[in-house]
Amino acid sequence: MAEKSVDLPQECWELIFNSLDHHRYFESLSLVSIRFLSITDQLPRTFTISSQVIPFLPCLLSRFRNLKEIEIREFEGDLNSLLYQISKSGLDLETLSFSKQNLFPLMGVRELGLRMRNLRKLNCSKVVSLQDSDLFVIGNSFPLLEDLDISFPQYYSRFNPNGSLALASFSGVVTDEGIFDLAMKLNRLCKINLSGNHFITDKSLQSLSSNCALLREVVIHDCDFLTQNGISFIMRNCDNLCSISLDSLGIPYIDSFFQESFSYAKTLCELHLQIPNLTAIFQNSFDPFLSNSRTVANFK
Predict the structure, then answer these.
(1) Interatomic CA distance for residues 122 and 113, integer angstroms
(2) Distances, alpha carbon 206 to alpha carbons 43, 165, 294, in Å
(3) InterPro entries this protein is in (predicted)?
(4) N or C: more exposed end of the chain, with fewer CB within 10 A?
(5) What's the distance, CA 189 to chain centroid?
(6) CA distance linking residue 66 with residue 140, whole number of Å
(7) What is d(CA 252, CA 258) in angstroms, rounded to the nearest whole number?
(8) Taking the CA atoms of the chain, what radius of gyration do you get in angstroms?
(9) 151 and 126 in contact (C-beta within 8 Å)?
(10) What is the pLDDT confidence band of residue 284, given thresholds at 50, 70 and 90?
(11) How far apart are CA 162 and CA 155, in angstroms?
(12) Band of the pLDDT at 254, cuts 50, 70, 90?
């Protein structure tokens, strides 16, 4: 008498499928049986949306119910409508990326925030015309946000050739007011990339370090009005700071206050400095700091 076959539990099948080199095999597996189809539909956690996917999007969002991360890439349609459609899907996203877009999707983000309050990571880097009002909406929509990338917003020729600081009060750019609002609302923020926001000052760093107690990583490249004082404030007041990346801050010399600030950064383990012509100065200034074996420092 033939032995009765015993099927594997679903957890075992999931482990087997996830051990495959690439999720592209899931489609073939889904054709084997209804059960395999059900299992493979539950496994994907990440999904990339491009213009080519849009005609099939309702079916795909309905099929893959456990998605946690969506990246919008090479999309040329109405981003507000797309985010509205995602918000209606019933998914519980943790990560959303829509960098290099021609406009910040204000209405779409608001709609998404009404239904997906658990978002932990948002990447809206290189968005055209990013401004304080957009940051207000981010803070209101995603109070649990831990990782935010608002780096290198694109403004093209909107600024006067002289690059006057008076433009920082213009409503069409990111200023200290927008960063202050984020700092007040995002008390779980752990990482922020402020690079390329040319009109923020040390006040932004002070508000972040004073209000975001969990802040661990800060990236600030090409921020013209940030100084040693702002960096020093972060290192002296962020008890959990473990990584900081700086360049092009226009630092002509290293003052003692800045150098001494490193002794306050007890948890700092990564330091990235890319400041032309000052490599030797930094290395000599931070010799005691760099001697700590837990520290990884890159000077360029």
Answers:
(1) 12
(2) 42, 19, 26
(3) Leu-rich_rpt_Cys-con_subtyp, LRR_dom_sf
(4) N
(5) 10
(6) 25
(7) 13
(8) 23
(9) yes
(10) low
(11) 15
(12) confident
- The upper half-sphere exposure of residue 107, i.e. CA atoms within 13 Å in the direction of its Cβ, equals 7
Domains in the chain, ordered, with CATH? 9-43 (no CATH), 120-154+173-299 (3.80.10.10)
Give me the phi and psi of 274, to 5 degrees please.
-125, 85
| Segment holding 6, helix H or strand E | none
Q: Which of 26-30, 74-78, 247-251 has the lowest mean pLDDT?
A: 26-30
Helix (H) or strand (E) holding 72: strand 69-72
Q: How is residue 194 written in tokens?
A: 């402020």
> Which pTM value belongs to this model?
0.80
Separation between Cα atoms, residue 13 and residue 18, nearest integer Å: 8
Sheet holding 147-149, edge to edge: 46-49, 69-72, 95-97, 121-123, 147-149, 191-193, 217-221, 243-247, 270-274, 296-299
Q: How far apart are the first and last CA of the chain?
A: 74
Helix, strand, or coil (residue 129): coil
Residue 118, pLDDT score? 93
Exposure string for 119-158, b = 16+ CB within 10 A, e = fewer: bbbbbbbbbeebbbebbbbbbebbeebbbbbbbbbebeee
Q: For residues 124 and 153, what is the distance between their CA atoms, to the nearest angstrom?
A: 9
Place of tokens 């100084």: 227
> How confident is the prediction for the chain on average, in pLDDT?
81
Task: Show the DSSP H helices in 116-218 as ranges.
Answer: 132-141, 176-185, 202-211
Structure letter (DSSP) for residue 32: T
